[in-house]
Design a protein that fits this description.
two-stranded antiparallel ribbon; 2 strands; WH-like_DNA-bd_sf; about 150 residues; about 70% helix; about 5% strand; cytoplasm; repressor; DNA-binding transcription factor activity; transcription regulation; Diphtheria Toxin Repressor, domain 2
Length: about 150
């Protein structure tokens, strides 16, 4: 008698417990990193284009309150990604600048991949914003190869 006889299609495709746990752990870690990377990228953009990154500007760009920004900036400072200077805004550490570069690089690869699939530039840019934080190195490399072959 087959072990899956009488099971629904969902039960037949249910992954094992360890694989399931590993997948959820990866997603939770990516979600935590995603928010930090979004803040770091924005701060880097503001510093590059305006010469300063102030709490009020960050809040306006992200559509959140200043207390929300203040809490995240404290967390990022504790993680060694930025420094706050009284009356001068925030500045990225070398680790913060590295994070911004890496996040942008992943975003560019995902965006090029989506465009190579035939997705419009605007949609590819928007979709890449979420995907870039969750994609593995292996998948990113495959996306890069695909986009390079089609580009």
């Amino acid at each position: 008698m087959r072990a899956d006889k009488g099971k629904t299609s969902l039960e037949k495709t249910l992954i094992d417990e360890e694989a399931h746990r590993a997948g959820f752990c990866k997603v939770r870690a990516a979600r935590r990193t995603e928010l930090a990377e979004d803040y770091i990228e924005l701060i880097d953009d503001l510093l590059t284009h305006r010469g300063e990154a102030r709490q009020v500007d960050i809040a306006a760009r992200l559509g959140v309150t200043q207390p929300t920004v203040a809490k995240m900036l404290r967390r990022l400072a504790e993680e060694g990604l930025l420094e706050s200077r009284r009356y001068r805004g925030v500045f990225l550490t070398e680790a913060g600048r590295t994070m911004a570069r890496e996040s942008r690089r992943r975003h560019a690869v995902v965006e090029r991949f989506l465009i190579a699939l035939g997705v419009s530039s605007d949609t590819a840019r928007q979709d890449a914003e979420g995907i870039e934080h969750h994609v593995s190195g292996e998948t990113l490399a495959a996306m890069r190869r695909f986009a390079d072959e089609r580009g």
